[in-house]
Amino acid sequence: MLNVLLVEDDVDLAETVIDYLALEAIACDYASNGMAGLQLIEKTPYDAVLLDLNLPRLDGLRLCERLRAAGNDTPILMLTARDQLDDKLAGFEAGTDDYLVKPFELQELVVRIHALSRRRSGQIQVLRCGDLEMNLKERTVKRAGQSIKLSPTSWQLLETLLRESPQVVSRQKLISAVWGDDPPDSDSLKVHFFHLRKAIDAPFADHLLHTIAGYGFAIKAEKQQ
Fold this sequence. Notes:
The chain is α/β, with parallel strands linked by helices. It has two domains: 2-117, 3-Layer(aba) Sandwich (Rossmann fold); 126-224, Orthogonal Bundle (Arc Repressor Mutant, subunit A), CATH 1.10.10.10. The chain has helices at 11-23, 34-43, 60-69, 85-94, 106-117, 152-164, 171-179, 186-200, and strands spanning 2-7, 26-31, 48-52, 76-80, 98-101, 126-129, 132-135, 140-143, 146-148, 169-170, 209-212, 216-219. A five-stranded parallel β-sheet has the order 2-1-3-4-5, sandwiched between helices. The protein has a four-stranded antiparallel β-sheet with strand order 6-7-8-9, covered by helices on one side. Helix 6 (152-164) packs across helix 8 (186-200).
């Protein structure tokens, strides 16, 4: 069963949505303001968040920005009566993944929830594993507070691994993500990973980059082993 969070100050609409989602086997937690929604998201993993734009205490745009800045990659569907292009662009700039204008069909809402729940958000601004942090907006990488310089290829490899962390990423998926239809030879791939490992692991006691024999690579902290 999917588990989503609805952050909406219209109680009547919220009750209608929650009841309908229950019929579709989708569990739905509820918050009536932005701060309450933020607190729930921080302590509960959700498959998706349904977020109203106009909210008391903390509006939808600010809530979305705070989640992305904190590295939360839960897919977000913005629900709003605003249908102007500028409003939609503001939502995407804040980090939302999809947009649904009120009034909407509940069946369409369910379809979009299922689509979003199958992926993590591409709008995330900060990727983390242990004491390693990659800031996509500022284009910086740090570990234990120390700045790390990466080549463009090493950056792409690390970003791909962090987006999937702590899961193992196959060699083929890494090659496709970084090089597309022009894959490097095996020795070249080894060299790139040697330099990546040297940059993010060599100066530190705990290693984050792991080679999974016969399959691929993973970025994970010791506690995630």
